[in-house]
Amino acid sequence: MPIREFWRRQPRLLRILAVRLALIVPQMFGVTLVAFLLIRLLPGDPARLILGNFATDESIALYRQKLGLDKDVWTQFAIYLDNVLHGDLGTSPFTSKPIIEDLADRAPATLELILYAVIFTVGLGILIAVVSVVRRGSAFDWGARAYGFAAGAIPDFWVALLLVFFLYTVLGWAPAPFGRMDLMLAPPPRITGFLTIDALFAGDWEAFRSAAGRLILPVATITIVNAGAVTKMTHSVFSEIWDAPFVAHMRACGVPERQIIRAALRNSLPPIISVSSFILGFLLGAAVLVETIFSWGGLGQYAVQAVINSDYAALQGFVLVASAFILIVYSIADILYEIVDPRIRT
Amino acid sequence: MSASPEAPVIALEGLTVGFGGAPVLDGIDLELRPREIFGVVGETGAGKSVLARAILGQLPPGGRIEAGRILLEGRPIDALDAPQAARYRGGRVALIGTNAKALLDPVARVGDQIGRVLRAHGKPDGRTDRRSVRDRAVALMREVGINDPERRARAYPHELSGGMAQRIVIAMALAGEPEVLLADDATLGLDATVQAQVLERLVERSRERGLSVLLITHDLGIVRHYCDRLAVMRGGRLVEVSEVSRFMAHPADGYSRDLLAAARARPALQPPRKSDDRPPIVDVRDLTMHFQVPGSPQPIRAVDGISFSVAPGETLALVGESGSGKTTAGQCLLRLLDNTDGRIVFDGRDITDMKEAAFRPLRRHMQMVFQEPYVALNPRRRVRDLLAEPLALVEPMTGAERGRRVAELLAAVNLDAAVADIRPGELTAGEQKRVGIARALATKPRFVVFDEPTTALDIRVRAQIIDLIRGLQSSMNLAALFITHDLNSVRSLAHRVAVMHLGKILEQGETRAIFESPREDYTRKLLAAELPIDAETSEPASAGSAA
């Protein structure tokens, strides 16, 4: 079997990447199909909904023809797929702009928020877990446990409101919870859509300070609420590894503690990767309350608007984009997962 | 040499260590002299490992030095200042532990792991740049007898054999250039041939570098071959300290004499069975098991066309080093693995391609005793439930009946009835083995595969397990396949022996014939690798450096 042999001779990293990237195509197809069918499952005839109760049967039939609803499901799906591939997700009757443009406007806001939030969430979660395992039984350990226990139970909007109340209203340290940047400042030219990064590209320090400052409270909110989950997961993995014979052996060999921690953490990575990717995917929609409180104007708010307005095309577009994002995040996590653990056979 | 009046490198003065209750080490006085190889023998639970950990200043959690001192070159180790203390572990005293695979970081390359230790101790000569550390790590790997060290340095621990991993651990111990090595059952669980190679290498390096070695073991053969002096340990005390040669001739203590007698015992060979015309209960033809491994175009030929048969009531021993395919062959036999080629006939029926549903009723007649009972027994269930579980699969019976059967099984393996109510974790290794055996016998099988039933057991416990199996065989008329590398147990249990090497059977025949006049070189090498306790027998094979 020459193909098989050729495959087995390739470096491990290449094999991991090839498999994962090849899998994205059918997975994306499945996601598109589900997004399409989801809307089909909604009750009611769109033509009748749009034309209203007084429409004649002929006009409805005509309109159905115009919408392509008279064709069979698979032809409709093929048309939909073709449109999606051409970047056409339809037009929203409420913003009267192409949905793809609406999404492209709002996606960077949410992505910027949740990427920073995930970085801090994972960083803080790991830090707390590692310190509490290394100093087992200390006051810090007990505090960390209490936090891990409570964090899952705190609602995010409540944390957000507390932070706004104390840090903005009472103390005046934090900037106002009104959007991503001071309205008096001109936003930097759009390159990545991330205001902090674009401001740095433009060399606009004032814009950077404003954008970064506005990020503090929402990022802090998400971090406080979600770091507990990372802490708990990391704690259970890391403490098991901390008790493993190889850690005791490194210590017996006189390897410095700092390096032992690093090695043990390296061994704990796979579940941390899983939980981080899960949180990142989950926040895309779940950050909506935080977005609302801070008038962030992100994807979550757009999706909620679409639901309230029964704007199905916009909703469909959101579902598609969100699923694609989660798919990419999970694929990256899978790739990292296999890279960090040499024992996984590929 | 050991009579030299030089000051000891390590001295223990009345060392007493406790974990809250009774002391685990009780007033130990011991001197380790320069360039001396000192054996510490004793059975499991004697406190040998705690002794090594105490000297290293790394007691298990909860352990505390309650009295006495540990002196390094005359200075108490708790009086070392911070930089000296940092140098102490690994730099002056290094530990070589048991079960090397668990001692290595599973996600780091072994060369880098040696490098970490080199860096920690600023070896070589304080240079910590990547290149010199790597070169030194490779040199160390070569020194402990690893072939092609440049390539092996890039391997992960799971890609190494047990013997190879043990060599890496030794290299890590040597990396800090210590004066004292503590080898804590360093070769436990390794094949006899590999054990001999690893020990040989370890002792050679230590002599060369002028190290003092504390060789902790439960194998008197090892002590007899490599040590200058020894201490016998029991219940946290040293019952006897003596020169090895004097000890072998005249052990002073009663317990020492028992140990020595148990180690010297050469069981009578199992007499050949009277041949009869009954057809074999198990008949295997050209059994082959190849594993496809990703990342390599060649399959692993774990079992490569072996044929043998076992008559009713007969015991066939399958001996060979680890990696020879013994266990894989046993698992294929019970259809725990689906062999890639060959036929397996059980009791006249070809079971090779039998559907699981048709094969299932046959399973009660063929059972397996797994190698590591602690892994094979569910740690959360009580012994009673573990034994009742297979019974429930066989036929419906009432709770009372089942209770009676469990009691019978426990009695059959000489375990106390009270054991039924505890969990495997609370049992000793020997008791766990017994529960494993009882579990396999629960369905009254006619054929049992014993996978390494005597490895990693103390010598006296081993003898008890062998007696047990022997008794069970004759009382139940069991046919057995006995997979092992412990030749002593083969002598006393097997009617016939098959020698396996690299997936093939090299020779098979009556036990006596194989032991007394082996035809193959490999068999002779295997037999020679046993470390005999008495001087008149041959020296251990210092066979090459291939691991």
UniProtKB/TrEMBL annotation, chain A:
Transmembrane regions listed in the UniProt entry: 21-42, 113-134, 146-171, 272-294, 314-337
Highest rank taxon of the organism: Bacteria
Pfam families for this protein: BPD_transp_1, BPD_transp_1_N
Record's bilayer topology term: Multi-pass membrane protein
Location of this chain's protein in the cell: Cell membrane
InterPro entries according to UniProt: BPD_transp_1_N (IPR045621), MetI-like (IPR000515), MetI-like_sf (IPR035906)
Assigned keywords, A-Z: Cell membrane, Membrane, Transmembrane, Transmembrane helix, Transport
GO cellular component annotations of the record: plasma membrane
The keyword Transmembrane helix is assigned to this record: yes
Domain ABC transmembrane type-1: start-end pairs: 107-337
A molecular function (GO) term: dipeptide transmembrane transporter activity
Family per record: Belongs to the binding-protein-dependent transport system permease family.
Protein name (record): Peptide/nickel transport system permease protein
Source organism of the structure: Prosthecomicrobium pneumaticum
Automatic annotation (TrEMBL), chain B:
Pfam families the UniProt entry points to: ABC_tran
GO biological process: transmembrane transport
Signal sequence residues: none
UniProt KW ATP-binding keyword: yes
Key words of the record: ATP-binding, Nucleotide-binding, Transport
PANTHER family, A to Z: D,D-DIPEPTIDE TRANSPORT ATP-BINDING PROTEIN DDPF-RELATED, TRANSPORT ATP-BINDING PROTEIN
Name of the protein described by the UniProt record: ABC-type glutathione transport system ATPase component
